[in-house]
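Running this now, will post back.
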Amino acid sequence: MTTRKQEQERRRAERLAAERQTHDATRRRLMAGYIAAGVLALAVIVGLVIVLASGGDGGGSGGDPGCDEAHIQLKSGSTNDFEPDCREGTAPAEIAVGDLEQAAKAANCDLQLDLPDEGNTHIGSDPSKAPNYKTNPATSGDHIDPGFQQADGAYLDTPDPAFVVHSMEHGRVNIQYSSDLSEEDQLALKGVFDESPAGMLLFPNDDMPYEVAATAWTQLIGCKTYEGEATLDAIRDFRDVYRGQAPEDVPLVTG
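Update: finished.
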């Protein structure tokens, strides 16, 4: 016959066994959680190492060039996540008019040279803090911080003016066009860019009063209408005169 004391001992043993089982199950869950957290932390570390090794996006210097046809040079700035223009341009004919003023007149383009310098203060990383530029497209003025200047290359998106104004301060020339232009005409302009992409940017701009324009620091050529080879000559002449001409002598990136 089981005594009262024996019954108490049996119940105590059962209670201890249940407690051990609960403790072991809790410990297994904690260990599984620690392992999962460790794996996640390792994945984050590996990801950071890969980003740092590839140049990352820190300081605005990153971005994916996307394709060789866009000729994007990350050493010159950042893509700022704008889509590259991977189209193959149409090679232009030889320049028929090599004088900028004569070419601009033949193409009915507005040539505005030696415009007032609107300043060059850095405004941080937020382009919305940029001033209202006095020319359209912009040709100088306060702009985005170093590292965020738009990298040399061709884009399908329109960069904020604060990005490309900083690029112009580094001696870059921006070719801009209305997205209403036919694909054929856009590819002709892309061909001009492809011909000599170092220190050049190409992108659409539907906010300007021109079908085609090119800008450099305090310099502007704007063409109300696209006139084929005449317009291409004017843009190429502008490029050849003003590329590399800016307050900051930043070397062009080639290759």
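The first helix runs from residue 4 to 53. More later if anyone needs it.
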